[in-house]
Amino acid sequence: MDSPRHVGKIRELVYELKVEAVMTRKLITLAPEAPMSGLRSILKSNRISGVPVVSGQTLVGLVSVEDFINWLAQGGRDCPVGERMSREVRTLSPGEPLVHAIGKLEQYGYGRLPVVDGERLVGLVTKGDIIEGLLQEMQVNSREEEELHRYRASHFFEDMIADRLTVNFQYQVRGKTIEQGGEVASDLKRSFKRLGLHPEVVRRAAIATYEAEMNVIIYAREGTVDVSVDPETIHIIVRDQGQGIPDIQQALQPGFSTAPDWVRELGFGAGMGLPNIRSCARSLDITSEPGQGTTLRISIPLEPERVCA
Ligand SMILES: Nc1ncnc2c1ncn2[C@@H]1O[C@H](COP(=O)(O)OP(=O)(O)OP(=O)(O)O)[C@@H](O)[C@H]1O
Ligand SMILES: [Mg+2]
Asked: In angstroms, rounded to a whole number, what is the distance separating the alpha carbons of residues 301 and 205?
């Protein structure tokens, strides 16, 4: 099996990489006027199971093997694909992190999702694209990590330890749309990399912050993230004013979620956020007052070998 380190690396990349980094840009598309009778050979010769239908550059639908079979079953009288395509197409946007794309592919059970910028079709993402993108990025990242280790040796992080300094960061999390969430986690990650923290530690802090930030956006809409780094530990405190958690033990169970349908449709609500935070941290302490809000206290040791997950 994979070493826990590699599993961790993939998990980090899934949060970090954007859809546009892995999507296929060379697309096979059809115009709505194209004949249904031509679909079979297009699907077969390209070994694909669905084709986006575009008018100019605008995505107007998707026509799949299933649509083709239904058309055949109903007599197969030739007509434009525009009459048989599905118009309610689930899509991705180029700036979404892969974690959303994977969630949506699983959620909908589709093999592929078109990527649109506004209404314009700009790409297509399959599970294969995601795997390929991740593998490529793993190679790039291992080189970066080596550089980072060298960087660390000469950086002021060592001085910080010597002087027993504490570095603080503060953020506000406001009710933005879920799809734009993750800003605090990305910013923190950049700062931690600059500080020369160990890549494994940066990864754990970024994942924990991302999950906590998304929960604030989804369940509370507003909150603060206070981070302090002392020579031994990163302390992350996430406070929100919101609905609170009535049963914390239950909320910590993997798979437990109260996410409403519209949140699930965006690929969230697997009930893995809090368990993920816990597995990234040495300790996770949650206090919550229903109707008032929730506070998460997360500590992550700076020496990665001291983390057990
Ligand atoms: N800040 C919060 N305020 C209120 N309730 C929360 C908060 N964070 C979590 N919860 C509750 O705990 C449940 C579990 O949270 P968790 O992050 O583990 O899963 P999720 O958000 O439902 O799904 P996922 O994080 O996998 O997208 C949530 O469904 C919600 O009911
Ligand atoms: Mg969550």
From this structure: 10
Distance in angstroms (rounded) separating the CA atoms of residues 18 and 71? 36
Q: Hey, which CATH number is domain 155-306, 3.40.50.720, 1.10.10.10, 3.30.565.10, 2.60.40.1880?
A: 3.30.565.10
Query: From atom 9 of ligand 1, which residue's Cα is the shortest distance away?
Result: 215
Residues 6+ apart with CB under 8 A from 299: 233, 234, 235, 236, 281, 282, 283
Q: Identify which ligand lies nearest to the alpha carbon of 276.
A: 1
pTM recorded for the entire structure: 0.66
Is 94 touching ligand 1 by the criterion CB < 6 Å? Answer: no
165-186 pLDDT tens trace: 788 899 999 876 787 788 899 8
Residue 5 alpha carbon to ligand 1 centre in Å = 26
For ligand 1, is residue 245 a contact (CB within 6 Å)? yes
Residue 242 Cβ contacting ligand 1 at under 6 Å: yes
So where are the chain's domains? 4-129, 155-306
The CATH number assigned to the domain with range 4-129 reads 3.10.580.10
